[in-house]
């Protein structure tokens, strides 16, 4: 069985939002381990390679597995958009 899909971008595609899996209590997947930082960074890097420098690649920092400690890794992986960052999260 081939489970690959063809990805089609239109001129209106403005950004890619890469959101890692985080297990939540009380859900059907509560006991599934959350995705580690290296998986999120790998996914961001692959998106950056596939879509190039002209695409905005976002990984919301409030969902990063290791909080602020992971922000430099996400930047190095290729994000150029913090997405839902607010003044509560980032101090100028």
Please render the helix and strand layout as text.
Elements: E1 15-17, H1 37-51, E2 56-58, H2 71-77
Parallel strand pairs: 1-2
Describe this structure in words.
- There is one protein chain.
- The protein is of the alpha+beta class and 92 residues long.
- It has a domain at 36-84.
- It has helices at 37-51, 71-77, and strands at residues 15-17, 56-58.
- It has a two-stranded parallel sheet with strand order 1-2.
- Strand 1 (15-17), helix 1 and strand 2 form a beta-alpha-beta unit.
- The chain is globular, with a radius of gyration of 15 Å.
- The N and C termini lie far apart (50 Å).
- The mean pLDDT is 82.
- Estimated radius of gyration: 15 Å
Overall average pLDDT: 82
Care to count the β-strands?
Answer: 2
Pairing-aware structural class of the strands and helices? alpha+beta
Shape: globular
Order of helices and strands: EHEH
Count of discrete alpha- or pi-helical segments spanning 4 or more residues: 2
DSSP helix fraction = 10-25%
Strand order of the largest sheet: 1-2
N-to-C CA distance: 50 Å
Q: What are the low-pLDDT stretches, counting only 5+ consecutive residues below 50?
A: none
> How much beta, percentage-wise?
5-15%
Q: Major beta sheet, specifics?
A: 2 strands, parallel
Descriptive tags:
single chain, 92 residues, alpha+beta, two-stranded parallel ribbon, 2 strands, globular
């Amino acid at each position: 069985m081939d489970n690959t899909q063809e990805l089609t971008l239109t001129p209106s595609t403005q950004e890619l939002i890469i959101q890692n899996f985080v297990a939540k209590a009380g859900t059907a997947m509560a006991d599934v381990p959350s995705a580690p930082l290296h998986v999120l960074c790998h996914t961001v890097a692959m998106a950056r390679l596939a879509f190039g420098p002209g695409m905005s690649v976002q990984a919301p920092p409030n969902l990063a597995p290791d909080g602020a400690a992971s922000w430099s890794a996400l930047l190095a992986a290729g994000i150029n958009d913090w997405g839902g960052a607010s003044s509560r999260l980032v101090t100028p």
